[in-house]
Amino acid sequence: MFKTLRGRIVTVVVIVAVAVWQLFEHRSETGDWLKLGLDLKGGMHLVLEVDDPQGTMTPEARADMIERVEMIVRTRIDEFGIDEPLIQRVGGERLIVELAGISDEEQAKGIVTRNAFLEFKMVQQSSDMDAALPRMDRAIVVALGVDSIRAMGRAESGGSRIEDLLFRQNDSTPADSTAGLATDSAEAAANALRPFSSLLSFGDIPGTYLVDVEDVPAAQHFLGLPEVQRALPRGTSLQWGRDIVPRGVRTYQQLYVLTEEPFLTGDQLEDAAAERDPQFNQSIVRFELSRAGGRDFSRFTGANVGQFLAIVLDGEVMSAPVIRDRIGARGQIEMGQGTPLEEARDLALVLRAGALPARIAIIEERTVGPSLGQDSIDAGVLAGIVGTLVVGSTL
Q1: The 3-state secondary structure of the chain, one letter per residue
Q2: pLDDT in tens, 58-79
Q3: CA–CA gap between residue 135 and residue 143 (Å, rounded)
Q4: pLDDT tens digits, residue range 134-178?
Q5: What is d(CA 91, CA 219) in angstroms, rounded to the nearest whole number?
Q6: Whether the Cβ atoms of residue 70 and residue 354 lie closer than 8 Å to each other
Q7: pTM of the full predicted structure?
């Protein structure tokens, strides 16, 4: 067959056809014929490190932690569908992640770095918290001083907005049910001595407060003070909600009174999938717990029918539905109105891959352009075609 010209031509055609077929069968998910690396295609370069601001971790603990982070990050990236990622540890403290051909860098960075720590907590009645608010206010005044609080503009806060009267109970803040609309300097001076409670209004469900979006940074600053954390009722935590609540011309963020310890965490989660709820037209993430987790979930929810259950992700309350009946191994996380389905899919992805064992910090981030360029790629393809023709002509 190889002795005749016709046989040689047929052989070359068959070899070329098989090569083209193999290229087509093994092309990347993005449709590229060749899998291009970071130098040819460009992409994202990240250097990650375990976040240990207090410096309490030993070198051995950091090395073990970064090894576990590598396994979870690798699982997440594989599910995300990125071709030829580079993930490698440097020493015992850092992790290099290179992702070629990324079109949405923020999405990819969120998938890599999101902790995805899922907790289930009960919403508490706010009576104990209401009683603790004066103590928390005093702690803030002692820690910061009246002058500093007034410099933050807090002397004019609390009860001074007409819109608040539209939905406050008895025109009051939770700390003082008899407080009226601030109309003189005496009221302003009183507000200066209750810098935190004057920011709060009653929420729509028991165990929640509302904070004007403009006041959220100040409230977060107050809650971050160690003195305020020590003034909280025992076994209770305050955590922010994800959704923004409109009231008249203003918008508010919810602040939930929750149990400090969760009764169940995402360690018991086995599967998660995103979908669109046709009834309410919102993105949701349905999850399934392990057999042991399902038993615990069923037992706990059965004993707390009528109470509100907070689904907390990375310290933020995603939703707080009322428990209407015993819940088994399956449940759902409501993402809220207007949330893209893609965001719900990303959340389901990181939940399936598991939570990171510790917070990680990005210590280096850069976007890498295609250094060799399209011209070099085209030149390489042309050289391959010419080489094939030259070899074929010698047969």
Answers
A1: CCCCHHHHHHHHHHHHHHHHHHHHHCCCCCCCCCCCCHHHHCEEEEEEEECCCCCCCCHHHHHHHHHHHHHHHHHHHHHHCCCCCEEEEECCCEEEEEEECCCCHHHHHHHHHCCCCEEEEEECCCHHHHHHHHHHHHHHHHHHCHHHHHHCCHHHCCCCCHHHHHCCHHHCECCECCCCCCCCHHHHHHHHCCCCHHHEEECCCCCEEEEEHHHHHHHHHHHCCHHHHHHCCCCEEEEEEEEEEEECCEEEEEEEEEECCCCEEHHHEEEEEEEEECCCCEEEEEEEECHHHHHHHHHHHHCCCCCEEEEEECCEEEECCECCCCCCCEEEEECCCCCCHHHHHHHHHHHHHCCCCCCEEEEEEEEECCCCHHHHHHHHHHHHHHHHHHHHHCC
A2: 888 888 889 889 989 998 888 8
A3: 12
A4: 999 999 999 998 888 888 765 444 443 323 433 333 344 454 444
A5: 40
A6: no
A7: 0.69
**Cα 315 from Cα 116, distance rounded (Å):** 10
Of 130-134, 180-184, 189-193, 212-216, the least confident = 180-184
**Smallest Cα–Cα separation from 318: which of 330, 307, 334, 329?**
334
Per the listing, tokens 């601001």 go with: 53
